[in-house]
Amino acid sequence: MRFLGIDLGTGSLKLAIVDEDGREVAFSSAAYAVTSAHPGWAETPPDAWYSALVNAASRLPANEREAVSAIGFSGQMHGVVPTAADGRALRAAMLWPDTRARDLLDAWPEPQPNPVAPGMAGPLLRWLALNEPQVAADTRWALQPKDWLRARLGGAAFASFLTDPSDACATALGRPSGEWDDALIDRLGLPRAWFAPLAASHERAGALSEQAASALGLRAGIPMAVGAGDTPCAALGSGLSSDGDALLTTGTGGQIVVMCAAAPAPVHGLHTYRSATGAWYRMAAMQNVGVALEAVRGWLGYASWPEAYDDAFAANASASVSFLPYLSGERSPWMNPDARGGWLGLGLDDTRGTMMRAAFEGVAFALRAGLDAIRGNLGEHGTTLDSMRLAGGGSVDPRWRQLLADALRVELHAVDCPNAATRGAAILGGIAAGHWRVDDLASLAPAATLAATPRANASLDERIARFIGLYKRAEDWFAPRRESA
């Protein structure tokens, strides 16, 4: 018995087939472009997702595909696909990095239960209603990306037009519980009928159509789970199932996710969303992790990452040089889209190794700021947070792992699961098929190896305090720039 997980990401689609014990037995992926017809736009034609799915499926072993008994979905969050009644996408999908609705956020005055960004479905649909009235008039469903793909695979049967609380709560149109906020939708002048009925992530949402089955090399009629957003799927696939379980992911951005059995109180700068299993999670989302380090590596002329790591960690940590990594603004905990970065404290005797080391430290300290916000606002939900799982392609080098453990003051346990969101999606498919129950999830947690233990370091603590103080002083400088822009 096999289960297929589909992870619809921003720039690529990933597939994983897992066996009856939750072990990955096959994997493939296919990329597509995010286009920008105008400055600040971020779009992908949904048909490109379907083409990528067919492409990726063709490279999975035929015998493994034939054994697939159910499908689950993970998807990039926040964006939206305006869809006709028959399931056709009416325009390119508008995605989470999109900023075209930045001037329309006045409909979400502070305080909000969750941070609102211009690339969320609410602001994007408000823009659509104002700027593309014909598309808005033809829209029957405003779907999240994974929900559009699932409907496409189901032949657009009505049972496929569903969404789940983990995605709905992150649209800026739903309550943190995941229920649609009818009063807000009405106040925005958007049709309530656009928004799909809610179902649990592991519930069935139709079956694979004959046409899609033929294209993918799968059996027609196998059940499809509703699915969940990529962050809750990654948490599920990484083994987070109990109150207080925590995960750090480092990639282009970084996320710190902590599971909560009950809804934590809203906190400015942190996200409170529903998990893929009906519980909750608190999240700090930092957008300047791998993206900032990659920029610095290029600026300093390192030809490869091993060269950058070697030079940085051969250099002594500087007592005077700090690096703010906020090259594209920042989300948690500052919620400051106008924040910017750079080095301060450089002297003539500093080297590019010093600068690269300061960049690694700056990113680690930015993650620490997000974690401190969680630690201070979790109440009984694992306040100490002295142990976390670690995942993501940006956390492989052992020296970088040690710096993260030292800066965050946590034990880091590397998860043996390179495709966590895809695995989480497959597990949802297995639950929809009746092979597993939600109560079984703890037993499905992948192995995790101790990667780094925090070491006491007074000078590091001083540098962290200097970093936080530097950002707060720089924040006063950013504000006048916003006002004069």
From TrEMBL:
SUPFAM superfamilies xref list:
Actin-like ATPase domain
Family from the record? Belongs to the FGGY kinase family.
Q: Where is the Carbohydrate kinase FGGY C-terminal domain?
A: 249-433
According to its UniProt entry, one GO biological process term is: carbohydrate metabolic process
Q: Which GO terms describe its molecular function?
A: kinase activity
Protein's UniProt keywords contain Kinase: yes
What is the protein named? Xylulokinase
